[in-house]
Design goal:
The protein starts with a helix and ends in a 26-residue tail after the last strand. The strands form 3 sheets. Strands 3, 4, 5, 6, 7 and 8 form a 6-stranded antiparallel beta sheet that branches. It is α+β, with helices and mostly antiparallel strands and 184 residues long. It has 2 helices and 10 strands. The radius of gyration is 29 Å and the shape is elongated.
């Protein structure tokens, strides 16, 4: 009976030790490859301690915005990314995360956002400088004309347009079209 009690006590100790060990396991919320470790065995950590740099298949741009711009940005908005190191490269992306709490530095509040690349390019490396144009407002079924095309008579504004005839170059939509009929 004494050995049986000793065995049960040892099994309980192993179970407790396993539970404590499970609390020390660090997990990332995504799959990736550890590129750099910043800690040594025995170092103390807190929940905010960065312990490693992970590389993933999916690339994400992390940018800092001032509070005025951050107020306009929402998850799901489309963005266009350009890179200083690869000048001819433009990649489409989607805003995947916007910090809810800003960081104050010298009285200026800034927010970190993350933009998920829609396509991957091997030339883009971690840590590269990136610029982003984020579409914060989109109007559909609208017509855009140069301000030089607007004719004003008093308070009435008009834009000359084609009402008849057929364009001679239908492929020139961005460059304009040539018509046999005068615009009205």
């Amino acid at each position: 009976d004494q050995r049986q009690a000793s065995l049960a006590s040892a099994q309980a100790n192993v179970s407790d030790a396993q539970e404590i060990l499970n609390q020390y396991t660090i997990r990332a919320p995504f799959a990736g490859e550890v590129a750099k470790m910043t800690l040594q065995k025995g170092d103390s950590v807190t929940p905010s301690t960065a312990i490693a740099t992970l590389l993933t298949e999916a690339k994400v741009a992390q940018l800092t915005l001032n509070e005025v711009d951050a107020a306009k940005v929402q998850v799901g908005q489309k963005a266009t990314l350009t890179f200083d190191a690869v000048s001819e490269l433009t990649i489409a992306g989607t805003v995947s995360e916007v910090d809810t709490i800003g960081t104050v530095s010298q009285g200026v509040v800034s927010y970190t956002i993350k933009i998920l690349f829609q396509t991957q390019d091997e030339r883009v490396k971690p840590g590269m400088s990136v610029s982003a144009s984020i579409i914060t407002n989109l109007k559909t079924d609208t017509l855009v004309v140069p301000s030089a095309a607007i004719r004003r008579v008093g308070t009435v504004a008009t834009v000359p347009g084609l009402t008849g005839g057929s364009p001679t170059d239908a492929n020139a939509t961005l460059q304009g079209v040539t018509s046999e009929v005068e615009p009205e």
